[in-house]
UniProtKB/TrEMBL annotation:
Entries under InterPro entries matching the protein: Acyl_CoA_acyltransferase, Bact_Acetyltransf, GNAT_dom
Alphabetized Pfam families for the sequence: Acetyltransf_1
Protein name in UniProt: Acetyltransferase (GNAT) family protein
Residues covered by the N-acetyltransferase domain: 14-161
Superkingdom of origin organism: Bacteria
Amino acid sequence: MRAVDELHLGGATYRVRRASQDHLAEIVGLLLDDELGAGRESADDLSPYREAFAAIDADPAQLLVAVEDPAGPVVATLQLTFIPGLARQGAWRAQIEAVRVAAAHRSQGLGAALFTWAIEESRRRGCALVQLTTDKKRTDAHRFYERLGFTASHEGYKMSL
């Protein structure tokens, strides 16, 4: 397992790694440690997560990262999807999804550092735009994204199937 990059924050060095199967239980734990995820995720059976991870890991347009703190555990995660498009003169865009930071590490700058890393990785891969969706109930997250320079420029719709 190789480090993709490092985040230096408050004297600590966090490792940003391409997630592996070994990180899966910890990432699911982060999804569960969330007001919305607590009602839709479950650690009782990891097989659906293993199947999804295999598909993500096999797709070169996907980058699921695990952020490890200096002591080793996964304390944050996000998924980047690189999307080609015809709009904007054939521009590539990056979609940021499934951002989670462990409760004990929130409000300390780790989320902002991870987003800065994700934006730079998107630039490095030639993306002209970075986008994300966020649940309307996440008002704290909305303020966070706006502080990072994101604008609520579009209305999004979803349909559960």
